[in-house]
Amino acid sequence: MEVNGNVVMGSKRSFKLMIVDDSNIMRRRIERSQQMDELEVVGAACNGLEAIELFQKTDPDIVTMDLTMPQMDGIECIERLVELKPSIRILVISALSDKATAVDAMEKGANGFLNKPFTDRQLNEAIAELIRER
Amino acid sequence: MLQEQELKTFVEGTTNYFEVAAQQPASVGSPYLATDGPPTTHDYTGVISISGKRKGVVYFTAPRAMLTVLLMKMQENDFSHENMRDLVGEVANTISGNARRDFGSDFVISVPSVMAGERSEIRIEPGMRSFVIPINWRSHSAKLVVALS
Q: Which residue numbers in chain B have pLDDT < 70?
């Protein structure tokens, strides 16, 4: 890309990712597995309430969301985040693999669903899919 | 009486965790019926309670050494007490998720709780039979215990 005669490198759009999970090992694992150039991890929260606070500070574009968490669960948090930012993309990452849970999450505004446990490849593909859809 | 399919759901939930998260499958030993009180626990135990059509508990209990290697295989380098608790909680969460998917609303399944210590007190109703399924992975052995009415 050329601006005023100068070549501008790295003009690819970048996306901000927020991780929400009550498990420390899951938060760290999701963060470690992110190797896409266009993705920047802006923070991690361990429940829905913390996620809302972190959202207000960091304005993420993409969120990975656990469902079973203390204080505010994932379903309620999805609803709140979608109200605050309708364009946000949310990937639910949960061990709850029944159809009713997935449908509920999608109806509240989630855009994808990944079952725990997962491989790094499955996670990266699911996040890449959310980015492609934006 | 515990059905074979029910047992299979719990066992698959457990072995699936090792196969996917650590990329190395676990093998299942010969199940047996505990006859001398509640089966003993290892260092860390993830417990789910079940009510509804069936009542009882299901728990996964593992030694610290096994969980340490499992964390290593997951590229984790923090082997703190909290991460050990997190890990058995995640395994129990997967077992719970599998059960919800396979049994639907017939089973009401609690959010997993985690206990630490080799003599964790897990309440099993008198007269309830406990099936013990050894879960072997690398050189380590854990137990899945299913005690349902």
A: 1-2, 120
Q: How far is B7 from chain A (nearest CA, A)?
A: 18
Pairwise CA distance, residues B57 & B95, whole Å: 12
Q: Could you tell me the pTM of the whole model? A: 0.89
- pLDDT at A4 exceeding the cut of 80: no
Which of B15, B20, B84, B114 to mutate against chain A (most A CBs within 10 Å)? Answer: B20
Q: Do the chains contact at B97 and A32, CB–CB below 8 Å? A: no
CATH level 3 topology of A13-133: Rossmann fold (3.40.50)
**Which residues on B lie below 8 Å from A96 (Cβ)?**
96-97, 100
**Quick one: which of B113, B136, B149 has its CA closest to B14?**
B136
Domain covering B4-148: architecture? 3-Layer(aba) Sandwich (3.40)
Q: Which of A54, A64, A51 is nearest to A17 (CA)?
A: A64
Alpha-carbon distance of B30 to A127, in angstroms, equals: 40
Q: How much is the pLDDT for A78? A: 97
ipTM value for the complex: 0.87
What token pair was written down for B43?
């260092």
Where are chain B's structural domains? Answer: 4-148
State whether B94 and A95 contact (CB < 8 Å): yes
